[in-house]
Design goal:
The complex is a heterodimer. By secondary structure, chain A is mainly β. Chain A is 8% helix and 38% strand. Chain B has 3 domains: 25-126, Cytochrome c-like domain (Cytochrome Bc1 Complex, Chain D, domain 2); 142-238, Cytochrome Bc1 Complex, Chain D, domain 2; 252-449, Immunoglobulin-like. The chains are: A mainly beta, B alpha+beta.
């Protein structure tokens, strides 16, 4: 009996048992010859990227209709020469028509579609004037976040994820750029600086490419969505989450607005 | 099942890269039993750091569920190794309520409970922590400490931003810090290494700088400083304080000096007085109790000149608070001295046995003599005779206060020379909301005012020698005279 056959004989009952145990077990690597060519490892569980022909579009505007939210004015008591004397935080940022910026719109139940790499290749968070820019960054799992220090003073890049390993690295003014570890699990991760405690941003580690941050006017567009019905989640740091079921037709455009 | 899982792992390894989710960690029953008996009261049944006793602790017990461990030898954000977990359980964490279980549990129990902890975070199932590479210790030197000092306050590391220019944890970003669990936290006072959570010494400090303290605001410097620089910084931080907590002296000696006493803390005359270490604990005897006092020790010096006693106190406080909850300090004496070492209750006196309090308050920046017969009964004394001043710099208060040894106020202790006089201290940190009698206190210590030195005072020494010699001579003669003579009777 050769070694391969022995392994197969042992493997079969093992896999059966593990599968019966509830599915948390690793999927068998069906194609052992598959090269480690994927530049975005590891492939997110359950999501298959590929070419999408005749995909549809989901578009819409997220708006805010609640009571006016006053900016939070922070009195700066350190690094004033860089941070200024006050910093105006806008926890809920809207335009004159009520369009809500910095909300994250994403499909949460899609298993195949365009490649994850469609989210882009550079994922950058800058620290400038002692605030983060942008305040929300979407990073695909398997990719890393680049954090810039345009301020030339000490910041620390401190994340508090649940599934991914946390990060807390010093970034003195002499260190213009820091790269995080690659994110492995999809989740919403808070980023903060302990030196300047008013600094907050959000990294959304996404396991599919159908995720976007609303623009200054609250608008968003998700393209190349294979025809089908999907659950859309719209999330805002301060205002919470809304979900919608949206049907996309081949080549068609579906509008889904949301109001917080 | 264990065998099957191992086989599955072996299979995957044989086929190529291991998928991300290996088998769930086992939670040995022995570990569970130890955990329930020893750990649960603080860390909680669910390992969430919310045990029954957790509420009064600062720092709070660790929440194990996310795998965030402060003291590790692994890279920033990584899980601790088994050896890291075992070490922290065995050695405990100085400056916290986490005891050194190595003195209580058997090696097997320690191993078992370390394994049990890993079951609280699913990260242990899929991550394999590795120790960071450690550069060999190059050995401390003046050059390295100097280099570390430049890093500490310079732009390359900016440690002083949180830890303060003198390392007392009072930097401009020290206020309002919270840890990753939302609990308030302050930067370490680097001048008291005996309370470092991961232990004192340059090697441990080097590791903390390299790995960061996960779950706290302390970041890793591994990416921005070279190993050489990390060692420089470690040696500098190590040079800021002793590894072991000082021991209190048996008593505070107030040396006698001639002429006026120093009125400022910087006066060179204080070099004649030995600094005495006085540890403080939370006031736990009466409500409201303080389980987490912020001020842990006071350094005391004393001088007198036969008519006045002057005390110089030094204590670290990260924040100078003058507002609604001001910083404060009190020096306590019994209002009168009793025979047989009898003393009033040290917690601000007792009915019928009052204490004198010399109280300084940052709000008014003034001294007041108070009388107290127990918690909540402090009143100003009829006449006030304290003079003094207080300075605050780089996270440290220095206080100088003086009073006449003899006064006309009947409620005052008349301070004798050449006797052991009970003395105690209490301190309040306003930023922590310590007010009224809920500050930090210590028990009775003694102060001894040196007797006047005069030639007459020494005259008894030769006199005693002569007297003893005479006595001996007399006894010898007597013995000789009374001894039976040979051939007698």
């Amino acid at each position: 009996m050769n070694r391969t056959l022995l392994l197969r004989l042992v493997a079969l009952p093992v896999l059966v048992v593990l599968a019966a145990c509830g599915g948390a077990a690793p999927e068998p690597t069906a194609a052992p010859t598959q090269p480690a060519a994927a530049t975005l490892p590891p492939a997110p569980e359950g999501y298959q990227g590929g070419a999408v022909t005749d995909g549809g579009t989901i578009t819409g505007t997220v708006s805010y209709a609640g009571p006016a939210v006053e900016p939070e004015v922070v009195t700066v008591d350190k690094d004033n020469e860089v941070c200024g004397d006050t910093i105006e935080l806008m926890p809920v940022q809207t335009d004159s028509a009520g369009g809500l910026a910095n909300a994250v719109v994403r499909i949460t139940d899609i298993s195949s579609g365009k490649p994850l790499s469609e989210l882009g290749s550079d994922f950058v968070l800058d620290q400038r004037g002692c605030v983060y820019s942008p305040t929300v960054v979407i990073v695909p799992v398997g990719a890393a976040l680049t954090v810039l220090n345009s301020d030339g003073i000490l910041h620390n890049v401190h994340t508090t994820p649940f599934d991914n390993p946390p990060l807390n690295v010093a970034q003195p003014g002499t260190q213009a750029e820091i790269t995080s570890d690659e994110f492995t699990f999809p989740e919403v991760i808070a980023v903060g600086c302990d030196v300047h405690q008013w600094m907050h941003a959000t990294v959304v580690a996404a396991d599919n490419p159908y995720a976007v941050v609303t623009g200054a006017d609250g608008s968003f567009t998700l393209t190349d969505v294979p025809a089908g019905t999907y659950r859309i989640e719209i999330w805002h740091q301060e205002l919470g989450t809304q979900t919608f079921d949206v049907t996309v037709e081949a080549g068609g455009t579906t509008t889904q607005d949301a109001e917080f | 099942m264990v065998g099957l899982i191992l086989s599955a792992a072996g299979l995957a390894a044989a086929r190529g890269p291991l998928p991300a989710r290996p088998a769930p960690a086992l939670q040995p029953a022995a570990g569970e039993a130890v955990y329930q008996e020893r750990c649960e009261i603080c860390h909680g049944t669910a390992g969430d750091g919310n045990g029954a006793a957790a509420a009064n602790m600062d720092p709070r017990p660790r929440d194990f569920r996310r795998g965030w461990y402060k003291i590790r030898g692994t890279a920033n954000g990584q899980l601790p190794t088994d050896a890291d977990l075992l070490a922290i359980i065995t050695n405990g964490m100085p400056g916290t309520t986490m005891p050194a279980w190595g003195e209580i549990l058997s090696p097997e129990e320690l191993q078992a409970v370390a394994g049990y902890l890993k079951g609280f975070s699913r990260r242990f199932e899929r991550e394999t922590p590795e120790p960071v590479p450690v550069a060999p210790a190059p050995g401390s030197s003046e050059e390295r400490i100097g280099g570390g000092s430049l890093l500490f306050s310079g732009a390359q590391a900016e440690c002083a931003k949180c830890h303060g220019i003198a390392g007392r944890g009072d930097g401009p970003s020290a206020g309002e810090l919270v840890d990753d669990f939302g609990q308030p936290i302050v930067p370490a006072d680097l001048t008291t290494p005996w309370s470092f959570r991961g232990g004192p010494g340059a090697s441990d400090i080097y590791l903390r700088l390299k790995t960061g303290l996960t779950g706290s605001p302390m970041p890793s410097y591994a990416e921005v400083l070279s190993d050489d620089q990390l060692w420089d910084l470690a040696y500098f931080v190590d040079s800021l304080g002793e590894d072991q907590a000082p021991q209190p002296q048996p008593f505070i000696l107030a040396a006698r000096v001639e002429g006026p006493l120093p009125t400022t803390a910087a006066d060179a005359a204080w070099q004649q007085a030995e600094a005495s270490y006085y540890p403080l604990v939370g006031q736990l005897m009466r409500e409201p109790r303080n389980f987490t006092p912020r001020i842990q020790e006071i350094w005391v010096r004393a001088l007198h000149n036969g008519s006045e006693l002057s005390l110089r106190l030094e204590w670290n406080d990260r924040f100078a608070d003058q507002g609604q909850s001001p910083d404060s300090l009190a020096i306590e004496f019994p209002a009168e001295l009793f025979e047989n070492d009898e003393r009033p209750y040290f917690v601000f006196g007792e009915p019928g046995k009052p204490v004198n309090l010399w109280v300084w308050d940052a709000g008014s920046n003034a001294f007041e003599e108070q009388s107290s017969e127990g918690v909540g009964s402090r009143v100003a004394q009829p006449s006030q005779g304290l003079t003094g001043q207080v300075e605050y710099e780089a996270g440290q208060y220095t206080l100088v206060v003086a009073r006449s040894l003899v006064t006309t106020d009947l409620t005052d202790l008349q301070i004798p020379q050449g006797e052991f006089v009970p003395i105690a201290f209490a301190a309040w940190d306003g930023a922590s909301g310590e007010q009224a009698e809920s500050g930090a206190i210590g028990t009775w210590q003694a102060i001894y005012l040196e007797q006047p030195v005069s030639l007459l005072g020494y005259a008894w020494v030769p006199a005693a020698v002569l007297a003893a010699a005479g006595l001996e001579l007399g006894i010898a003669r007597r013995v000789r005279n009374s001894a039976p003579k040979p051939g007698g009777s």
